[in-house]
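retry 2 of 3: previous attempt timed out while embedding pyridoxal-5'-phosphate. Reduced batch size to 1 and resubmitted. Inputs unchanged:
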Amino acid sequence: MSNIESNIASIRRELPEEVTLACVSKFKPSEDILEAYRCGERVFAESRPQEFCQKAAELPKDICWQFIGHLQTNKLKMVLPYASLIQSVDTLHLIEAIDAAISVGTPLCLGDHVDILLECHIAHDATKQGFSIDEADDLISDWPFRNIRLRGLMGMASYTEDTALIEQEFLSLKALFDKHKGGSFDTLSMGMSGDWAIAKRCGATMVRIGSSIFGAR
Ligand SMILES: *Cc1c(COP(=O)(O)O)cnc(C)c1O
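retry 2 succeeded.
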């Protein structure tokens, strides 16, 4: 077994079937993605628009491509035709730009709408992007964007050894998720290579794993 194959097998053993595994392939070559693809993986996530589009254009069409990086509005037109989910929607300005791009007829991966997650700032360190829990709560309660389907929430915990803190951060996102879940609001994306086991315990429906599958970047 190759490393990628055995890494996926060991993650799959621990991950409940109903939790989606988004394989984070940023900075990794297409051959690595194809290896994970041959293991049965179909959900891949990228963080840079150029790389995202290139890989999506050349790799198998049944891959479900998700965007997880910071997205500038001037790069939207590149990303929308391929993104089955944009996980990293972190400002109202970006939401409005997505809405505007839809109304001028930009080709969309899903045809007539865009699926997104709101990225929420749950970490106690200052570096992470995103809405506060309260801002996200208000936005979800009164969602005016008909062609943008709000599928749920994404968050990143603090980069720390303090598992109690990580758990507390994930649970704060889970509480907001539970308040609104139902219908197509069904996705709680949290947990990366270092903390996905904690995220799983805290109720994640999706984990985003890169280096534990593909190796260090
Ligand atoms: C890079 C990245 C990941 C994956 O990180 P690993 O620690 O390599 O698993 C997950 N989520 C986001 C938003 C990322 O940018």
